[in-house]
Amino acid sequence: xxxxxxxxxxxxxxxxxxxxxxxxxxxxxxxxxxxxxxxxxxxxxxxxxxxxxxxxxxxxxxxxxxxxxxxxxxxxxxxxxxxxxxxxxxxxxxxxxxxxxxxxxxxxxxxxxxxxxxxxxxxxxxxxxxxxxxxxxxxxxxxxxxxxxxxxxx
Length: 154
Fold this sequence. Notes:
Largest sheet: 3 strands, antiparallel
């Protein structure tokens, strides 16, 4: 059975999984603590670290090539009722991966979705956008602009 990755629901899930993966682990931990007690969950795949090949495209549109490897941590959990959540995060942060998996499962449940979107996903997405903006400003300071002067020869 193949999953439809082009559906709107799959796109929304991919968006929140991206936010959870890119969140600062300490900020994610604080956000989870602020939610209070969470429903019990069972671990399907305990958080484990490994390596993944990162692929890129030349010029963003060219042929793909292997850029290199990076370490990742993954985790899979299930809530009572069978809702499964997964978390894939960069690095070796086991607690981060477990939090991401639990939140992924809870976000799939109507009774938790809006609360987690407002209390966790939106603030973490804003924090990530602010970090990216600051990094962009720092990088822009090193930008060099070249120009050519035309000589007055005929």
